């Protein structure tokens, strides 16, 4: 019988994540998990490319709105981020810079003048957990 797709659910922030040190000082930190099908890949980089590399249309629309608003404040747009990572020699998934890759976790993120952002995709016990941490203590200038 095929594995039924399951919805994501909220999960506790895992202490073993590479961005765990960001949780305490973060202005926003959340975590979601989804159970992977038994026969699915456990290659966390391939899973990360799937999740982040081809976003849902509704997410693309929201990014467009975000870009339109944030452009007014001089904040980098996703187009600028894509151009920067593609022009450089840095590894990336879409416009996200790869900060760390291990057997069980991929950490992506970006630093800008208004905030530092990190997202982690952590594979553990057949679950893919996605969490984000945002530190916006930087002031807009």
Sheet bearing the most strands, described?
7 strands, antiparallel
- E-strand count: 7
Provide the structure class.
Answer: alpha+beta
Portion of residues in helices?
A: 25-40%
End-to-end distance, in Å? 57 Å
Radius of gyration, taken over Cα atoms and rounded to an integer in Å: 16 Å
Broad shape: globular
Which oligomeric state applies? single chain
Please characterize this protein's 3D structure.
The chain is α+β, with helices and mostly antiparallel strands. It has a domain at 9-54 and 92-135. Helices cover 28% and strands 30% of the residues. The protein has helices at 20-23, 44-53, 57-71, 78-87; strands at 9-10, 28-35, 92-93, 96-101, 105-111, 116-124, 127-135. It has a seven-stranded antiparallel beta sheet. Strand 4 (96-101) and strand 5 (105-111) form a beta hairpin. The longest helix is centred in the middle third of the chain and has 15 residues, at 57-71. It is globular and about 45 Å long. The termini are far apart. The model is unreliable at 135-141 (pLDDT under 50).
In short:
By secondary structure, the chain is α+β, with helices and mostly antiparallel strands. It has a domain of 90 residues. It contains 4 helices and 7 strands.
Topology:
Layout: E1 9-10, H1 20-23, E2 28-35, H2 44-53, H3 57-71, H4 78-87, E3 92-93, E4 96-101, E5 105-111, E6 116-124, E7 127-135
Antiparallel strand pairs: 1-2, 2-7, 3-4, 4-5, 5-6, 6-7
């Amino acid at each position: 019988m095929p594995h039924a797709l399951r919805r994501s659910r909220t999960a506790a922030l895992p202490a073993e994540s590479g961005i765990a040190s960001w949780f305490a000082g973060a202005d926003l930190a959340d975590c979601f998990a989804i159970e992977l099908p038994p026969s699915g890949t456990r290659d966390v980089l391939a899973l990360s490319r799937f999740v982040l590399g081809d976003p849902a249309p509704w997410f693309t629309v929201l990014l467009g709105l975000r870009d339109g608003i944030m452009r007014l404040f001089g904040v980098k747009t996703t187009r600028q981020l894509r151009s920067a990572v593609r022009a450089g020699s840095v590894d990336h998934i879409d416009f996200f810079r790869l900060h760390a890759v291990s057997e069980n976790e991929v950490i992506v993120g970006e630093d800008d003048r208004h905030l530092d952002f990190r997202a982690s995709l952590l594979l553990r016990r057949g679950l893919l957990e996605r969490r984000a941490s945002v530190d916006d203590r930087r002031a807009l200038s």
